[in-house]
Amino acid sequence: xxxxxxxxxxxxxxxxxxxxxxxxxxxxxxxxxxxxxxxxxxxxxxxxxxxxxxxxxxxxxxxxxxxxxxxxxxxx
Length: 76
Prior knowledge:
Radius of gyration: 14 Å
Strand content: 15-25%
């Protein structure tokens, strides 16, 4: 039995486009896209997965923390 939260079912950060499903492949690690724009400012990398990653990416304080990159680890 696998228990997962339903909060991510329709969350925009947890969804994929149809072309991602047909042309893409599984990504065991998903990099922070915003961190690439300011790579020289990054001082801390946070590795997390699932709901924790989505909550951190969507949190309002993320706009004030320009030196943190959040990396999603999808396969532990």
